[in-house]
Amino acid sequence: MMDTASKMMILGGVLNLFYGLLLGIPAGVIRQKQPTYSKYLRFVHIGALMWGPILISLALALELSTLDAGFELLAAWFMVGSSVLLNAKDTINWLRGTQDEFAEKARLPLALGGLSSVGSLLGILIILIGVVMGLTQ
Predict the structure, then answer these.
(1) For a surface tag, which of 31, 45, 94, 103 has the fewest beta carbons within 10 Å of its beta carbon?
(2) How far apart are CA 87 and CA 113, in angstroms?
(3) How far apart are CA 23 and CA 27, in angstroms?
């Protein structure tokens, strides 16, 4: 039986794939009318399509972990939450018409991106520790 953390990451992965594919629609419509489109629409489209397999793969990696289920669930929350924050950041930038979030000092997107980075680093660190412990036992 698969644990809650793995189920959460698989669901998060599938939702990311759905969101990434869904945003391919406006990207395709825009590209039919003009040769370029918002880099942030491109980021969220490709980013969500990347996060999907990452989360699903990490759910499988958790099967090797010997950490307590609570730590694994915390890692899953960090990873799935990070993907949501990053998708939100790029979606907001796209919808606002942001050209460069750093140059424009887009406060909310920059905060979301920072939180996403910290969360994903914490999540992957927990998973890495659990997997290494599991492989060395």
Answers:
(1) 103
(2) 9
(3) 6
